[in-house]
């Protein structure tokens, strides 16, 4: 992160100073302004590779032969290529950026239109990398047993996957739920962004442009590192200002930049040469993933984050994206734009009942159990904090101060 971005934020928060460079007016088209779009920002649906992800539900029949056999392969993430990944998290660019190392691949059976399943090894087990994939119970129960037998793993983890039905627990299986995906199905009319939200966002953009000459909004592919630096600078100020720890450090920004250079897109709201707001959207096949965003704290009533988000959604719709995934974090704005809350589950299957005594398996289970417990306790903690604040407020009013 660069210091000058933070300096600009603080200067604007304290008050406007100096003259702002003027760069042409906003042109309203579609549902939001799309000024100065990069020429290659949005390829037509016919030009974009279409992966088999979409609404495809993965089943055991996609990967298990009639005799129960698997088609296994290995690869190194640094040299891995895949024309149709199942999700963003199995994109070669993502696996390279996060140094996934040695990969175990489960190929689809001949004639089955299904993506590869990608696993990495950790602590004596196999970790499925296709987070947010849609699967049914047969895939987890049947495939985990075959993999443990063939790959010599003590346990198998399917993390943050979307199940099509109830998932039964068993003596060798732990099931956790600690977060949700907020998914906006773009082709479905009933699931589109509410017109009132779009109208209010357009009005905020017009008012911003009227009061601040030189405001422009664009959508472009492969955003530069300076855009990510601005996003993280804004995000850190907002999160740390709330007394919380910001999760994106410099090393994480480097990884996000590497992913963005290949599959990233961004809506960028600027005033002259200064970035006011931006977001990072990554695409994989017919899916879009809203990874992070940041906006200038000096415009609290202008809905800067909503402006860039709606712009990214509309640009993704125009490109033929099937689902716009707003990812984890149950924040109100996700429901406001029409996204649907999709519970995600993590399943840890062990080879035998005694497998839990293995240190790697135990550490893995405890990690997910802690996240699950934290989610369950969050409402109670919130209520307790609210009561404490109310009592303190009553005490202050009672003392006459």
Explained architecture:
With 401 residues, the chain is of the alpha+beta class. The chain has helices at residues 3-14, 92-97, 137-151, 195-211, 225-241, 250-263, 304-318, 332-336, 359-399, and strands at 28-29, 32-33, 71-76, 102-107, 117-122, 125-128, 134-135, 155-163, 173-185, 215-221, 264-271, 274-284, 287-295, 323-325, 340-350. The strands form two sheets. Strands 3, 4, 5, 6, 7, 8, 9, 10, 11, 12, 13, 14 and 15 form a 13-stranded mixed β-sheet that branches. A two-stranded antiparallel sheet has the order 1-2. It is globular, with a radius of gyration of 23 Å.
Indicate the mean pLDDT.
80
Specify the number of helices. Answer: 9
What gyration radius follows from the Cα positions, in whole Å? 23 Å
Secondary-structure element order, N to C:
HEEEHEEEEHEEHEHHEEEHEHEH
Are there runs of 5+ residues with pLDDT below 50, and where? 1-31, 34-53
Q: How would you characterize the largest beta sheet? A: 13 strands, mixed
Distance between the termini: 43 Å
Class by alpha and beta content? alpha+beta
**What portion of the residues fall into strands of 2 or more residues?**
15-25%
Please count the beta strands (DSSP E, at least 2 residues each): 15
From the spread of the alpha carbons, the general shape counts as globular
Fraction of residues in helix: 25-40%
